[in-house]
# Entry
Amino acid sequence: MNKLTSNPKLNRWIEEMAALTRPKNIYLCDGSEEEYKRLAHELVQAGVFVPLQKKPNSFWCHSHPDDVARVEENTFICSKDKEDAGPTNNWKDPAEMRQILQTLFSGCMEGRTMYVIPYCMGPLTSPLSRFGVEITDSPYVVLNMKLMTRMGKEALAHMKEFVPGIHSVGVPLKPHEKDLKWPCNPHNRWIVHFPEDREIWSFGSGYGGNALLGKKCLALRIGSAMGRDEGWLAEHMLILGLTNPEGEKKYIAAAFPSACGKTNLAMLKPTLPGWKIECVGDDIAWMRIGSDGRLYAINPEAGYFGVAPGTSMKTNPNAMLTFTKNAIFTNVALTEDGDVWWEGMDGSAPAGLTSWLGEPYDPASGKPAAHPNSRFTVSAKQCPIYDKEAENPEGVPISAILFGGRRASTLPLIAESFSWAHGVLLGASLSSETTAAAKGEVGKLRHDPFAMLPFCGYNMGDYFAHWLEMGRKTTADKLPHIYSVNWFRKGSDGKFLWPGFGDNSRVLKWIFERTSHKAKATKTAIGYVPDSLDLQGIHVDVKSLFHIDREEWLQEVDGLEEYFQRFGEHFPMELKLELAQLKKRL
Ligand code: OXD
Ligand code: MN
# Structure
């Protein structure tokens, strides 16, 4: 075989994977526009992509009905020692798993092209960036990786070390066999990580979170393990730049579980006059302590793979303006005149829709036209408020970190931690109602520490300790302030107490001013809460939004004590003390 690249390690791995999977062809992606257009055209010819009349160079497609979300029960962390995967991850012995994978991947690319995608997570020259190579038999994955990462020739030119990741839809093709529109293997899905070897193997799913290996697999699961070993943090966080009316700018990072409004917050259009938000990232932050002792963050991604339903000119105009061209829409509904539509975009469903299942949509069915986890994929550069500093290789200095979940009760709109360690407890205590982003029941309250439950590549107890350790790397005055937020609290009438969206800028304003030691706060048992928020022009039930119900909180603490026991000796003593102090304050 001709050598595909000038990187001997990469060539050896490609040869090994080709020998195992036996593809028809091997193709090295260059990341060019021409390549993107050619592959998209091939998908149009195959009937997989439908070009959108109303959005230039954009496509609609829909998946197999059972390949619509991340599959947490099929996701594995295969560290040598089971303890290192911890109680929140599925684990299998690496040797046993490698045997399973050898069998699964043997001949799995027969009849297909093997695409080799060199990519970089983060700006090409950033000391925080990491390189990966994804081998895949899915041209849909190649196109999405082009939008989501810095991929192709340039990435290859800058690459030294790389994280190998192999992905297959798991459906070999016999000679002359017609391909499925969305090949996948829903009864045989495996999303496997070897954190010590820094390797990813993904089989059977074409869904983004399972198949775009730069995102959850590298940037979070392998990334978090790298971060632990190398002294930095890989987090499920958006990064936004906030400028006050005087022109002062600060950066905020915020962790929320999947489909809890990270993209909306990252691109927020403030309702408060004079305030401005710019977007660095909407899903992942890699952070390290800089030479000045402050915490700096980069967004390792180069695009958005956002949840479509609920996105509208009202809720997120900047997202709507981002995907007017050069976008891929998966599992949304298709309009008669060649545009996309989803629930929550505007009014009721237009006539003549094609549903996410690819069928004529019947509004009387009572079912949604777009899948609740349907997605848009688009380059971040198209965002009208893309922050210039997002390309800064040094990252942006973080002044505040937010932890938020979907909680109908108990948690106030906002509370500030007393210290870094107390902030780590706020992160560790995060729980949220489940959403459609992962397969399984929706609306069930579950613990989701740091919004990292599905994404931490090692023992979550050690991860808490790593966060505490990060706080010891610098002085307290240089560390970001930490907050817990809850946009989703409901009143006794079952309605949301807080308007959310653009009005979240009111909460951000308070945070901004707290980090400048300007805004006042009252000490409560659970943290500092605002003395006053800027609520001009809106009417909200402040008392209910900030009510701290002692009984509910004692129950919350009991639940946490029980939950944290799962981590045994890995649970840091410092957090145990923080929790005991919280109980005492209550
Ligand atoms: C995502 C997720 O797609 O968290 O970002 O599921
Ligand atoms: Mn996410």
